Amino acid sequence: MSSRLAAKPELRTILGQPSWVIRTPQVELALTRLGAHMGPVTFGLDGQPVRPYHVSPWQEEKLKLDCPCLVPLRGDFLCLPFGANQTPLNGECHPPHGETAGSPWTLKEIENTPRGTSLTVS
Fold first, then answer.
1. Long-range Cβ contacts of 23-29 (<8 Å, 24+ apart)
2. pTM (predicted TM-score)
3. Which of 15, 55, 58, 113 has a CA between 20 and 30 Å from the CA of residue 37?
4. How many CA atoms, within 13 angstroms, populate the side-chain half-sphere of residue 110?
5. What's the pLDDT tens digit per position in 6-23?
């Protein structure tokens, strides 16, 4: 039986970016609202915390960056459509790594089940 959280959690600022945080006994994961960048992520392996993902060092410097995905840059994120194109393709131009990597995301659901925890965003 699953248990959905009725209230949406507040965004917490993690290394300069408003982020949703989920935790299990084995992992803590932050997902930025801007661009849905995953990081930091902490794995508790054999009692030793492991943080394999990098967070860009300028996160709390309020820099003006031309590439939207550089603003929250950290960990892993969805790049769709990938790349930037100066010349329109089928009438479309996209920023580097696509709109997904630098646009705001919306929290839809957090679900806790005996098999794990999931966070759904769009």
1. 23/117, 24/116, 24/117, 29/119
2. 0.84
3. 113
4. 16
5. 445 678 999 999 999 988
